[in-house]
Design brief:
alpha/beta; Rossmann fold; five-stranded parallel β-sheet; 42% helix; globular
Length: 137
Amino acid sequence: MGEQEQQSIRCLVAKVGLDGHDRGAHVIARAFRDAGFEVIYSGLHKAPEEIVQATVQEDADVLGISILSGAHNTLVPKIMDGLEEYDAKEDTLVLAGGVIPDEDKEALKDQGVSAVFGPGTSIEETIEFVRENAPER
């Protein structure tokens, strides 16, 4: 496939809630961009509704939610419900990253999160997962 024929994967990297730590989000956003993905960064302190709106408006293929605050069991389901309201849940690969306890990962996956990446996950592993699982445009 020629380079013009292959559209880049659109990724929204989002920081939800009051979590003010964005170093990891910046690292993954840069790595995604370096891998050839189109990257939009939400900025800090976004409400779940704002992330849903940005995902839909930007027509993102991938939504990467960075969360370190411990509020993932409250905030991520709100995002997933919002994506469903806009019929965007099936068309969006949703990833979560940050400090998320193992016992919470299955509940997030049950909500529709495709993968949860914790500290120590290699950037290459995350990029490969996106390439293999992002929806076709």
